[in-house]
Amino acid sequence: MKKDPRPNILHILVDQMRWDCIQALGNPFIKTPALDRLFAQGAAFTNAFSPSPVCIPARASMIYGQYPQTTGCYENNFPMPPETQDTFMGRLTQEGYRTHGIGKCHFTPNPLALRGFQTRETQEELPDKSEDDDYLSFLHSNGYSYVIDPHGVRGEMYYIPQVSQIPQTLHPTRWVGDRSLAFLKEQKDAASPWYLFSSFIHPHPPLSPPSPWHKLYGYDDVPLPRVPVQYESLLTYVNRAQNRYKYRDQGVDLNVIRMIRAYYYASISFIDHQVGRILDTLEATGALANTLVVFASDHGEYLGDYHCYGKRGMHDAAARVPFLVSQPGVFEGGRVYDQPISLIDLAPTFLKAAGSHENGGASFDGLPLQDAISGTNTRDRVFSQLSFVEQADGTRGGMFFRPDPITDENRAANSSYMVATKDHKYIYCASDNKELFFDRRRDPFESRNRVHARASEKVVHQLRVSLMEHLKKGGETAGIENGTWKVFPARTLPDDPDFGLLTQDQPWADLDFEGQD
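Predicted structure:
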């Protein structure tokens, strides 16, 4: 049986990992030997951004190769495009690839949809039924049906460091690693090339590494958050609202912050261990020499920077992502590329690697990364967008109200937009009527807003116009009026610290305590 010469594709995605958490790329505090190895044999794109810094929109943009204004998915409470619309997984399947997904996909409105995959092994954070989730079925078959928070206790415990109730051999992170190894071994002698999506839920909070990994970093082993002197002027309504509903707006406890960061790093290192096992198996099965490997995150995490937590912001902490890629003869040699790229570039990159005659074209907003390193792609900026139009059903605690139906104007009134180049970043937040501008060369940690500096006037104007033109091109015009930003009523938080707190329990779990032993 003759083997198809086209490269395999291994796509490793993590959730909520910051861009600056790889040792080989400048973080001396964290242990990431597998990611360091992947970088040494491949390349790093150090200016990679999420097209929308929150889970579902970022993933929708990634699998369709389109910005949110094209997918119509702007927040976690927006559906993805219809299942009949082509994803890059579907295109790879049509091209003869064996396509398989393991772990978190976060598809909406149907979390069990294939969306182009031939097969999936499911692991989601909040499945409706335990029997619908392959990981939960595995966990229950091993005697852990009594654990109702296998990914960590959510809600009021979101940012309370907690040791996992699951041993490391059964931990959700280990399960994705184990199932990935099983797939790779099954494909050892297959004639067709394959695409494998290995998707880890962590380090998305709750911060719950297994024992003994929770001891990998001590109280004083991790760096403190970056909190600029002028940090309050750099925040938006979305930052403050997110701090509120995630129980992080009632003071600063430095000891807790250090442990939050230590457990976050531990969660990344445990993922790194799985990546190492996957790379070892690729090599042992003889597939490494003909495999395109990508490691990325859907978005970042503030982790205490600006005294903020979570994602949904356009600062680098939340919007910038780690991005490693390796393929012998194409992406190799430990090269660093600093041109701006986006997760929307993955779809055309994968299809170009597969030799598809439709690797780009009108269906994609993104561009193949093969062109970026060859110099044929001269794009110098990328965009991001989020619409913080919250749940109408009170699942974030009752503070938030979503008009039904959502109008274009309401969506625009709650939108944040970003354009980033290698040297500069411009942000507009309609909920605050606020512009932010950062000189990324002189102020790489985004500590001072230079939007009103006289020396910045020209570039701010250019980026503002560029962002508006990008939005207009996609039909996103409700927030633009007479050539400038339309002014909407500014949003503020209620003073009551108990108003709007998140409650989030497992839908499948029985919380009736009567008659329990």
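Summary: The chain is about 25% helix and 15% strand.
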